[in-house]
């Protein structure tokens, strides 16, 4: 929520600068009988583009989520591809992937320790993943185990589960303590996700501050440089 709020504020500020402030300054600058620097010309061109198509720029962040929601509800192939894409998204994808693996390992361990069979545990764990790509991978694991494959080789063959999951499943299969091995996986991934989020969140505000500072410097430089050249 915090990054979404910050980016929304920054987006609104930049839209205001480009649509309202820069056009007034560009009218002032074009009155000078001098060649404008390239960064001033770039600023004016950017402002003209945003001023001319601001409604498209504002509409895209609204329309795209609606389009995705409709596609997910009405097309299984689109839903599957979108869930695959979410796992590969920079920064967010790996965190989401680890959260889902931690959730799967925790619930699988709980069900296994309660006496539920491996096949039933996998079947019940599919919906916990909340991702069609991972659900499909678990279904393939389920089918291979039902056909007589070992648990660890089934997870390895699918190719969507991390080496840690495969190693710990293999250890649990060998020792007969599958629940203990998977609880360790859940603990490790939960701790890793928490540490990553704690590192990323404090960095968001400085990055946004630097970005805004660079944009303001660009505007100031674009305005002051022509005046300095005339002087």
In summary, what is this structure?
The chain is mainly alpha-helical. The chain has helices at residues 2-29, 38-52, 54-74, 76-88, 92-113, 118-129, 132-146, 151-158, 163-175, 178-230.
What does this entry look like structurally?
With 231 residues, the protein is mainly α. Helix content is 87%, strand content 0%. The protein is elongated.
Shape: elongated
Class of secondary structure makeup: mainly alpha
Q: Name the helicity range.
A: over 70%
Low-confidence spans: pLDDT under 50, at least 5 residues? none
Count, helices: 10
Strand content: under 5%
Number of strands: 0
Oligomeric form of this entry? single chain
The SSE order reads: HHHHHHHHHH
Largest sheet: none
Q: N-to-C terminal Cα separation, in Å?
A: 48 Å
The mean pLDDT is 86
Q: Report the C-alpha radius of gyration, rounded.
A: 26 Å
Write the layout of secondary structure elements.
Elements: H1 2-29, H2 38-52, H3 54-74, H4 76-88, H5 92-113, H6 118-129, H7 132-146, H8 151-158, H9 163-175, H10 178-230
Helix pairs in contact: 1-2, 1-10, 2-10, 3-4, 4-5, 5-6, 5-10, 6-7, 7-8, 8-9, 9-10
Key terms for this structure?
single chain, 231 residues, mainly alpha, elongated
